[in-house]
Amino acid sequence: MKIRNGFVSNSSSSSFVIIGGYFKPTEQMVTKMMDNFQIEYDKDDPMNEFYDKVVYGKSEYLDGLQIYSEPDVIGFEVASGDECGLSDQDVSIDQVIVKASKVKQQVADLFGVDVEVKLITGERCC
Question: What are the b/e assignments for 37-46, b being 16+ CB within 10 Å?
Fold first, then answer.
């Protein structure tokens, strides 16, 4: 019998399919967006305030968009799952095209940047 000494981890992962673009928000983008929505924030730490108040807080500012880290992506989740597999989804090509256009337009409106919209798949640790 083998006995393991030391740190043992019970890690898990989740899979995802996102219609979106690679996006790493900068302080300038974040302050522009929060100023446009008149969100009060600590001028010394706008990035932390952005994640607290917008990404993890009131998502209505993003109008349905989600911001993911690892990888840094902004978009709409089409499907997700855990180590047992992805959830069943049925999304038409027309719906994908509409959502892709919406991502591109909303990111431009909110942050003043252009993103190349793609179908992004991957896995992240939870």
Answer: eebebeeeeb
- Residue 37's contacts (CB-CB under 8 Å, 6 or more residues apart) are 61
Tell me which residue of 72, 58, 71 sits closest to 107, measured CA to CA: 72
Q: Tokens 């302050």 appear where?
A: 31
Report yes or no on whether pTM surpasses 0.85.
no
> Which tokens go with 42?
């600590």
Q: Per residue in 18-38, pLDDT tens?
A: 999 998 889 999 998 888 888
Closest CA to 104 of 93, 94, 116, 95: 116
